[in-house]
Design brief:
The protein has three helices and five strands; from the N terminus they run αβββαβαβ. The chain has 113 residues and is α+β, with helices and mostly antiparallel strands. The chain has a single domain, classed as HIT-like (HIT family, subunit A, 2-Layer Sandwich). The chain has a five-stranded antiparallel β-sheet with strand order 1-2-3-5-4, covered by helices on one side. Strand 1 and strand 2 form a beta hairpin. The radius of gyration is 14 Å and the shape is globular. Bound molecules: guanosine-5'-monophosphate (5GP). The site of guanosine-5'-monophosphate (5GP) has 14 residues, from strand 2.
């Protein structure tokens, strides 16, 4: 059964996609928590950090370098941004297909809620 994000990658569910390559996809979150809220999703449906395998190392590193690329592409590299990966119930994970949130366009607070 494909995940929600696999369906977005397959264009079965619409999304505002801003970037795609062989390993990942980046699109706007449907319920933004900041003026800019993007999700970077690996095409491989790794469930969550806790279930990632050693062979996922390249894909996981690629997500972070893609965040750098998107920050340049979308113009918020200078002002800064936050990346978040929610993991499991206490981590606030809703979609069981690993994804990196990018939040930008306002000053973030710390600690997060
Ligand atoms: P999580 O809580 O799992 O870290 O994040 C899941 C994110 O996916 C949430 O921020 C939620 O708003 C977003 N989301 C859920 N369904 C959809 C959808 O159908 N399209 C898009 N673009 N984002 C979604």
């Amino acid at each position: 059964m494909p995940t929600l994000f696999e369906k977005i990658a397959a264009r079965e569910i619409p999304a505002d996609i801003v970037y795609e390559d062989d390993l990942c996809l980046c699109f706007h979150d449907i319920n933004p928590q900041a003026p800019i809220h993007l999700l970077i999703v690996p095409k491989k449906p790794i469930v969550r950090i806790a279930e990632a395998k050693p062979e996922d190392k390249e894909t996981l590193g690629h997500l972070i370098l893609t965040a750098q690329l998107i920050a340049k592409q979308e113009g918020f590299e200078q002002n800064g941004f936050r990346t978040v990966i929610n993991n499991g119930q206490d981590g606030g994970e809703e979609v069981p297909h690993l994804h990196l949130h990018i939040l930008a366009g306002r000053k973030m607070t710390w600690p997060p809620g």
